[in-house]
Amino acid sequence: HDLDAFLAAINEKTKLIYIANPNNPTGNFLTEAEIDGFLAKVRSDIIVVLDEAYTEFTAADERVDSFTLLNKYPNLVVSRSLSKAYGLAGLRIGYAVSNPEIANLFNRVRQPFNVNSLALASAIAVMNDDAFVQKVAENNRQELKRYEAFCQQYGLEYIPSKGNFITIDFKQPAAPIYDALLREGVIVRPIAGYGMPNHLRISVGLPEENDRLFNALVKVLNLK
Question: Largest Cα–Cα distance in the chain?
Fold first, then answer.
């Protein structure tokens, strides 16, 4: 995110600014100082949503202390997902933290029964399981290094990622590569809709899953 460009684009009609950090699908990351400095310059009547769906994959010493920022900026909303590091993607549950006034507005417009009881029970269980989250994050850290090494070995350009995925630039239309990988039984994500027709976003899985992706890419791209 180009925060200076965000600030320059604000006008009298601006109501909300949305920042994903780490960003999806690129994996880019903004530091706490950058976000703090940005929030200090945004009008107080503009809501800023900080989407931290992938924050558990960042190193503890670089992670943004977003809940502390809430005390400084009442127009800030922090959203978190339990679909990533917590492993509850199929239950579609997460949470937001904001000042009571904004939370009250959310509650007025949300759908009734928008989260089911099984999802709520699962959320409570996983949020108390720090060991599992640490295990997932460590696997991601190690396997992301393998993705970077693979790209470097074969001369593939990639965007350094702070998430649980890596985005590779194939320097050619990526749709045929996506189709070929699909025929190999590997599903990745084309992101031409983001203006990146030469890129694919690839999730970091378990070692054996990543091995299958590596082998499929070598075959599809005829890498030597």
Answer: 59
How much is the pTM?
0.91
Buried b (16+ CB within 10 A) or exposed e, 34-62: ebbebbeebeeeebbbbbbbbbbbbeeee
Cα dihedral across residues 61, 64, 67, 69: positive or negative: positive
DSSP E strands: which ranges in the chain?
16-20, 47-51, 76-81, 94-97, 157-159, 165-169, 189-190, 199-203
Q: How many residues does the chain have?
A: 224
Let me know how many helices (H) and strands (E) the chain has, helices first: 8, 8
How many Cα atoms sit within 13 Å of 155 on the Cβ side? 5
| Distances in whole angstroms, Cα of residue 95 to Cα of each of 81, 199, 209 | 6, 30, 29
Token output for 206: 């378990």
Q: Cα–Cα distance between 55 and 20 in angstroms, integer? A: 10
pLDDT for the residue 112: 87
What digits encode the pLDDT tens for the residues 70-112? 999 999 999 999 999 999 999 999 999 999 999 999 999 998 8
Cα–Cα distances in angstroms (integers) from residue 15 to residues 41, 43, 44, 49, 181, in the given order: 15, 10, 10, 11, 41
Contacting residues for 79 by C-beta, under 8 A, at least 6 apart: 49, 50, 51, 52, 53, 94, 95, 96, 97
Going by the DSSP 8-state scheme, the letter that residue 193 receives in this structure is G
